[in-house]
Amino acid sequence: MKNFKIINEKENPLFNRKEITAVFEEKIMPNKDDVKKIISEKFSSNEENIKIKKIGGKFGSGTFKINANIYKSKSDMDNTEPKSKKVKKEGGMPNKSSGGK
Hints:
single chain; alpha+beta; Alpha-Beta Plaits; four-stranded antiparallel sheet; 3 helices; globular
């Protein structure tokens, strides 16, 4: 990544996380894995403890705004972040197509 700049950094002790807003300047939109790697290097944290909330950009600008949360531990992240439908299904939640009558 060429340019990486932190715009906003806020400590949230209630959820044991740091909420950051950053700007990347690139020709193409960065993927979440690349962003996690750069953020983990910048903040000396584990990639497993980072949740990328949003990567947004305007067409043709080459500037992308990143919203991310950096948790102190994996368990803090698992307890705070909402689970995706895929994770819920794997956890034994009944789905609608199984005919739960």
